[in-house]
Amino acid sequence: MNAPTATVVSFVRHAHSPYVPDAERARGLSEQGRRAAARVTTHLGPVADVVVTSPYERAKATVEGVADVAEVPLIVDEDLRERELAGNHVEDFDGAVEHLWANPTDSYPGGESHVEAQARGVAAIERLLDAYPGRHVVVGTHGTLLALILNEFDPRYGYEFWSGLSMPDVYEATFLDGNLLGVVRTWVPEDERRAETDTVAETDDA
């Protein structure tokens, strides 16, 4: 009998997108975000077996190139959308988010609690693990939902992890029999790449 094979899920937090009030689903990427999305394509296109995304335009635009290179369909899953903070614009966004991380069953009018968003996000990932065992699945999603999904499996992924995410960001999670074996960040933001290049250049000149 063959041993079970691990499934790899690369969670992709979308690239930079200009904030537009009341346009959560439709707002796309900035020019900076489009350049970064091209790097995501180079990074994940050669290894992706399946590409699934949030329905929000900024998430789709970040991973659609991956699907093109991998020659697979771009699958849209409504449950991978971002946690809905509130029905209307929230003035103190950072304070509201910090409050929800500290009080995961709370919600603002018209919004979701972290418990609610986490439940649908985890259910979406469990469906993918069942459907694509042993495959490399790329998931285009959002910062809060990404953190909430990982938090379900490991409580170390919380507010501080969320606040440290870049746009875009990529975390590779390995699952076996529905259990999380480990998570590795595989993305190097542009500013860190430049810093590494500068360090190498200084070393070469020394």
UniProtKB/TrEMBL annotation:
<dbReference type="InterPro" id="IPR029033">
    <property type="entry name" value="His_PPase_superfam"/>
</dbReference>
<protein>
    <submittedName>
        <fullName>Histidine phosphatase family protein</fullName>
    </submittedName>
</protein>
<dbReference type="Pfam" id="PF00300">
    <property type="entry name" value="His_Phos_1"/>
</dbReference>
<dbReference type="InterPro" id="IPR013078">
    <property type="entry name" value="His_Pase_superF_clade-1"/>
</dbReference>
<dbReference type="InterPro" id="IPR050275">
    <property type="entry name" value="PGM_Phosphatase"/>
</dbReference>
